[in-house]
Write a structure and sequence with these properties.
62% of the residues lie in helices and 17% in strands. The protein has 245 residues and is an alpha+beta fold. The chain has a single domain, classed as Butyryl-CoA Dehydrogenase, subunit A, domain 3, CATH 1.20.140.150. The radius of gyration is 31 Å and the shape is rod-shaped. 27% of the residues are buried. This is Claudin.
Length: 245
């Protein structure tokens, strides 16, 4: 029964780790390139040039018009869309909207995300190589890459969330949201982190299973060798016993 369980575990764990790593890469890239980490509404002051209202068939310009607009942002863009018909969504570079003091942290968050994706790709290649080799070292490297990429992405997302919170909740002119919440990109990013940790556990389990199989095979070989030595000794001792009799 132990042998059957070990063979089953050896067959399932590498495939599960590979699928989880592939899912992690897809989710991480999706969360990284999309701009729905934060969503919400903000109130802005309408300008004389931008907004007009029709009253009795004539256009009257209003300079102190409060307008609610929706926004969503991510690593790359900050998009705003007004609730007036005909007004298109406007997207700007998010880094250009940040104060200079927050730019190094934001660049560090981007570098951490890029580094985690590279580590995930290395781990994926190691898992692909482990399918062609019976050595457990590939699974160990894949597990190490998965854990490291998870920690790096965790730090990068924490930095990014700190930058988001400081700018969303600040009293500056860049952002004045009435209400905001985390969007689906945020959820996908942390789902990718969960899949990454599960992939590292599966890779580590595959490493332990293969290592246990190798050690068990060595013990069987040693036991078989000892049995052969004992048999040879018994065969060698039989003539002397007969001679004494």
């Amino acid at each position: 029964m132990c042998g059957v369980r070990m063979v089953t575990s050896r067959a399932c764990c590498p495939c599960l780790a590979f699928l989880l790593s592939l899912t992690t890469i897809g989710l991480t890239i999706t969360a990284f390139v999309t701009s729905n980490w934060t969503e919400g509404t903000e109130k802005v002051r309408g300008s004389v040039e931008d907004y007009t209202r029709k009253i009795n068939g004539s256009k009257i310009q209003i300079s102190h018009w409060k307008l609610y607009i929706t926004f969503h942002c991510g690593y790359w863009t900050l998009c705003r869309e007004s609730r007036i018909r005909g007004q298109e969504e406007r997207c700007d570079s998010f880094i250009q909207r940040l104060p200079r003091a927050e730019v190094p942290k934001f660049i560090g968050a981007i570098a951490a995300e890029c580094g985690s994706i590279c580590l995930l790709l290395i781990g994926l290649f190691c898992q692909m190589g482990s399918c062609c080799s019976s050595q457990p070292s590939m699974h160990r490297v894949a597990a190490l890459m998965s854990v490291t990429s998870g920690l790096v992405s965790f730090l990068g997302r924490i930095f990014f969330i700190i930058v988001l919170n400081r700018n969303v909740e600040s009293d500056g002119d860049i952002w004045r949201p009435v209400d905001w919440w985390y969007g689906w990109s945020f959820k996908i990013g942390w789902l990718a982190f969960l899949c990454d940790m599960m992939s590292s556990i599966a890779s580590l389990q595959a490493f332990n299973t293969i290592t246990a199989e190798i050690n068990q095979a060595k013990r069987r070989a040693q036991v078989k060798k000892m049995e052969e030595i004992i048999d040879l000794q018994l065969i060698a001792s039989r003539p002397t016993v007969e001679t004494r009799c």
